[in-house]
Design goal:
The complex is a heterodimer of chains A (245) and B (226).
Chain A (H helix, E strand, L loop, with lengths): L4 H28 L4 H33 L2 H6 L5 H30 L3 H4 L3 H27 L6 H12 L11 H7 L3 H10 L10 H31 L6
Chain B lengths: L1 E10 L2 E11 L4 E5 L6 H8 L7 E6 L2 E2 H9 L2 E5 L10 H11 L5 H11 L16 H13 L5 E5 L7 H14 L5 E5 L3 H7 L2 E6 L2 E6 L4 H5 L4
Parallel strand pairs in B: 3-8, 3-9, 6-7, 7-8
Antiparallel strand pairs in B: 1-2, 1-4, 4-5, 9-10
Chain lengths: 245, 226
């Protein structure tokens, strides 16, 4: 993102506009019909928390695709760096940018919709952490795809995050999904988090069963993602993708 | 120092390298010539591990590539005129990152002396990569490739965008550096460069080595391009 205007817009400006738009809408609805407060809060919550997962996937993919397109990846891969170190580096860089983005969003949100942070307790931190973990795990799938097919599949970050949103129950209950999609949603870790967010009531224990399921699934996804990337790198070296850029 | 035995590589449906075997001894500067698509860059990329061969054995500094890649990569480096480092970071930021990856403690001193040697103004170090000219970019890539003082230096068309004065300086610098502990392999389409700079010439055509010996004149090199 560093001094790259396009990436600053993706990370800070678009989420900011989204939050301003929906926070104003929420405030306006809350003023007109107090009963609609839970719906508007639910939408706002969905937008804010969904950013945690979606932006990690998009940012990590964009960063890897940038290195791929510029051929910087060639220089990186011929250093003695291990794959795990490379992934940790890319992930840490992306997460640090997301934290920056979330901090900016929090400031905006507290200005526009001050009661937002009063609604939830310390649970917010655990939810954010777990949603980031889901994002990291799935970003490895898009890194694997870019490694094999090149920068032409750089859109994978957007695609994965968009498809994932359907199954993550960001704005609706699990029951709202058609049966076939509902079955898939059980395998999506973020769906448990958004269910927990919606059913949150003061006094709910910080670490509950949905969090445990999410953590278990996320770790499984992350392990599978690392395996995908390792296999993809091996295949890319066989296909010559890194050298033929 | 570099031993390739019976290397075969097919990319897509095209046979790129066919039964290529070669050995490079310490102190040699080996030039690789050949028409477009002959497999020159693929050969370098097999040596640096970016491409895995379909069959055959790659041994660098007496270590097999298949099992010792991490260890080998500490002692080799690669630069190409078409590579770009991270575009929105400055030259110095990029090179400092690579210095960390190669665990080079005195990188700043080494880089300052490198750029000073080539008469590059200090301002270049603070330029962003995407603002560099092609010649400057090649020089930065070369600086990156020399950071870990590699025993095996692989260069792909590194002087292609450099002016003749800079090219001569680069040749002089690399020749002086190439003592008994080092090997340099250079892919180039500049046949004059291959004749004057290299101690040995390899010509590839259709993925096969068609000449391996003393450097030849440009006219004679081209006779092997058929």
């Amino acid at each position: 993102m560093r001094r790259n205007p396009a990436r600053i817009i993706e990370i800070l400006v678009w989420p900011g506009i989204e939050v301003v738009l929906f926070a104003v809408l929420a405030s306006s609805q809350h003023g007109k019909a107090p009963d609609s407060a839970s719906i508007t809060l639910s939408i706002l919550t969905g937008i804010v928390f969904w950013n945690c997962t979606a932006r990690v996937i998009q940012e990590t993919t964009a960063q890897f695709t940038d290195d791929f397109t510029s051929k910087n990846i060639q220089s990186l891969l011929i250093t003695p760096i291990r794959l795990s170190e490379l992934l940790i580096g890319i992930t840490a860089a992306s997460i640090s940018k997301i934290i920056l983005s979330l901090s900016a969003l929090s400031v905006l949100l507290s200005l526009i919709y001050p009661s937002f942070f009063d609604t939830f307790g310390p649970h917010v931190f655990l939810w954010v952490l777990q949603l980031e973990l889901v994002g990291v795990a799935l970003s490895y799938v898009s890194i694997a795809a870019v490694s094999i097919f090149g920068e032409r599949v750089g859109f994978m970050g957007w695609m994965i995050s968009t498809v994932l949103q359907i199954f993550s129950l960001v704005f609706y209950e699990r029951a709202a999904l058609p049966p076939a999609l509902r079955a898939i949603s059980y395998a999506v870790p973020s769906s448990y988090i958004f269910e927990a967010i919606r059913s949150y009531a003061p006094g709910t224990p910080v670490f509950s069963q949905p969090q445990a399921v999410t953590l278990f699934l996320s770790i499984g996804y992350a392990a599978a993602g690392i395996f995908f990337v390792a296999m993809a790198f091996r295949l890319a070296k066989h296909l010559g993708t890194f050298a033929k850029i | 120092m570099i031993d390739l035995k019976a290397i075969n590589k097919t990319l897509g449906r095209k046979l790129i390298l066919s039964n290529v075997s070669l050995s490079v001894r310490p102190g040699e500067i080996v030039g690789i010539a050949g028409p477009v698509g002959a497999g020159k860059s693929t050969l370098l990329n097999i040596c640096n591990g970016l491409i895995s061969p379909d069959s055959g054995f790659v041994t660098i500094i007496n270590l097999p590539m298949q099992t010792n890649q991490q260890q080998i990569l500490q002692h080799i480096n690669y630069a190409s005129s078409s590579q770009r480092l991270s575009g929105y970071a400055t030259v110095m930021e990029n090179l400092a990152t690579y210095a960390l990856l190669y665990e080079v403690p005195d990188a700043k001193i080494r880089l300052a002396s490198f750029f000073e040697h080539f008469g590059v103004p200090a301002g270049l170090l603070h330029k962003k990569i995407y603002r560099l000219s092609s010649g400057e970019n090649s020089l930065v890539n070369l600086a990156k490739a020399l950071l870990n003082n590699p025993n095996v230096l692989l260069l792909d068309e590194i002087t292609a965008h450099m002016d003749p004065i800079l090219t001569a300086r680069v040749h002089k610098f690399l020749k002086k550096r190439n003592t008994a502990e080092f090997v340099t392999m250079l892919v180039s389409q500049n046949t004059k460069e291959l004749q004057s700079f290299c101690s040995r010439l390899i010509v590839l055509s259709h993925g096969r080595i068609v000449y391996n010996g003393k450097p030849l004149s440009p006219a004679r090199i081209k006779t092997y391009y058929a």
